[in-house]
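#struct-pred
JK: can someone run the complex with pyridoxal-5'-phosphate? inputs below
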Amino acid sequence: MTQNENPRIESPQDGIAFIEGKYMALSQACVPILDRGFVRSDATYDVAHVWKGRFFRLDDHIERFFASMKGLRMSLPYTHQQIADILIECVSRSGLRDAYVQMTCTRGLPPVGSRDPRLCTQRFYAFASPFVWISTVEQQRKGVPMIVSAVHRIQPEAVDPRIKNFHWLDLTMGIFEAYDRDAFVAVLRDGDGNITEGAGFNVFVVKDGALCTPDTGVFEGMTRRTAIELCAQLQLRCEVRPVSISEILEADEIFMTSTAGGIMPVTTIDGKPVGTGMPGGVTARIQELYWRRQEEGWLGTEVTYKDGANQG
Ligand code: PLP
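RT: done, structure tokens with the ligand placed:
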């Protein structure tokens, strides 16, 4: 079949992007290949989500995005509110009720022949696309297999993981290792016998009813922050501190947290069952409250859809 036969009609629900001051179909959006964001991973980004027509923690995501840009000595000609308006507009135009919404700032193009990052003008783009699940709702019923990867997470002294970045080669090699070892996800180690995080998620370990999650060497995920707050609401003890590899291997429960899927149970670690080998009760309580709070509108920002599509 040639490309033109039976072409798929593109719908706004495939995604809407904003770039160079214009809204367009996500599939049409592109950046110049000499932008340092592309050739040097010289970029920062943030990802928020929309659930049932409402952004969750939109202001917190934009605040974190501005903090990341500051950390990388980048700036944009947009205010916090203007970025919020652009993101809401992308979702509104897409008609998506459940969406994955990314905002990105790249270093931009240097003048010809220059390597001086101070001379670049930063570029902004954003998009709304269908919601992304690291593990699907179906996989969450059983939990997914995880490994502790042999790969070390990039040292925080080299690339600050609290600034959301495109340095994903360590995380990507962890994914390959997970598949090679019949697992689905990998958590990377640091150089001191502790766990860090995985590709797009933070990790929580439950032992004897109390939780812990790594304090350093990780991106301080919005879902991690939310899970810590939900633990307080549920009167569960949650410590933010170094978590050793032996602790995760002996956990009663393990779960991942991410904007891309929420609270996601892990039921084997390095080929052995975690606890009973089924998603655990503490994980289930936090997961249930996570989605319930969003449906109640907690920290939510309503999207107004242009044509009323997908509402209600
Ligand atoms: N860790 C890394 C490396 C990530 O890239 C992400 C999200 O993309 C997370 C953790 C989870 O962060 P959040 O809960 O804000 O989605």
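RT: quick notes.
The first strand starts at residue 16 and ends at 19.
The mean pLDDT is 95.
JK: thanks, will look after standup
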